[in-house]
Amino acid sequence: MKKSIIKSTGMFVPPNLITNHDLEKIIDTSHEWIVQRTGIEQRYWIDPKGTTGASDLGFEASKMALENAGWAAQDLDFIIFATLSPDIMFPGSGCLLQAKLGLDSTPALDIRQQCTGFLYGLATADAYIKSGLANKILLVGGEVHSSGLDKTTRGRDVTVIFGDGAAAVCIEGVETKKSAGLLSSSLHADGNLADALMTELPASRLQCRFPKDIPVDDPRYFPVMDGPAIFKKAVRFLPKVINESLKKAQIDLDEIDLIIPHQANMRINQALGQFLKLDDNKIFHNIQKYGNTTAASIPIALHEAMEQGRIGKSGDVVLFAGLGAGLTWGSIIYKFL
Ligand code: UT7
Fold first, then answer.
1. pTM of the model
2. Cβ atoms of residues 95 and 123 within 8 Å
3. Which among 20, 95, 115, 145 is annotated as catalytic?
4. Domains recognised in the chain with CATH numbers
C-alpha cells in the first residue's frame, strides 16, 4: 500500500506585525499579562484596509510549498483547505485557492475543524491516497482572524491570542516497503462542548442571519471562549490522545524526535511536556512570534521545525497534537521517508 509522504512545506504571514504593546493602545491589557498567560509576544494581522482572505494567505504558502516540492499546480489532483475563517460564506476557500493557482477542474475541499483542521486534513489526505482517489495533494491551513476579532476590552481574552497566517504541505502517495508516512492518527470531537469556543453569528439557524434587532457589535458576532475550561480540557485530553496514537503506532514516546503541538498557549504545551515527562526541547514552540493561527499553527510550526533542521531527516518521527473549538482534538504520528 502507498504511504503518504510530506514532500515539502511552505508558509506565509501577512506583513502587518502587531506587538503586545500595539494592543495595549487599543484595549486594556499589558505585554506582561499576555506573555505570562500565553507566551505570545507578537502576531501578524492582515492590512485592515485591504481585502486579504484566507485563500490569499494560503496562495502564498502554496506557491512556496509547490516550488519546494518541484511541482506545478497542474500536478495536483486534490486540494484540502482547513480554515475557520473562510474568505466568504461560500464557496469554500479551497475553491478560491484552486482558481488562484490557475486551475479549473482539480477537486477542492474545505475542512472546518478549527485548531485541529490540519490534523483532520492530514488524516483525510492519507485516506484519499490510500484509497487511490488522489496521489498528489496540497493541504493548506489558513486563517484571517483579525477582521473578526472584538478589538475592545470586552474581547481581550480572545483578541490578544489570535494571529493571521497560512501554511501548505505537498503530500504524495509513494509505493515503499519502508516504515514511513502516517504511522497512526487519532481524531476526536465532542459537539456537546461547542459553546465553549464559538462565533455564533451570522447563523443560518435564525430566520434572518443578520437579525435587525442585534447590533453589529454584539458579542455573538465575535469569537467567545471559556478560556479556563478549554485550557483544562487541553491539559487533560492531549496527553491521553497522544498515548492513544503511540499505542496505535506501536511505538514508545522516546522514539518520537519532536512533538509539534497546536500553538494555543505556551503554558498548555509546557504542561503537556511536564505530564509526559519530556524535556522541553522535544516540544516545538513558536507561539511567541505568531500567536494562535488555528488551522495554520501546526503546519507553520512544521515548516519552521524543518527549516531549523530539528526534524525532517529520513527516519525522523514527529508527533502532531492539538485541541480546539468543536471541541475537536487529535494526534498524528508521522515518519519521514
Ligand atoms: O486554540 C483554541 C483553543 N484555545 C485554547 O486552548 C485557549 C485556552 N485558554 C487559555 O489559553 C487561557 O484561558 C487564556 C489565555 C485565554 C486566559 O488566561 P487565563 O489565565 O485562563 O485567564 P482568565 O480567563 O482566568 O482571566 C484571569 C484574569 C481575569 O480578570 P479577573 O476576573 O481575575 O479580574 C480576566 O478578565 O485576566 C483577565 N484578562 C486579561 N487581563 C489583561 C483576560 N484577558 C486579559 C488580557 N489582558 N488580554
1. 0.97
2. no
3. 115
4. 2-175 (3.40.47.10), 181-335 (3.40.47.10)
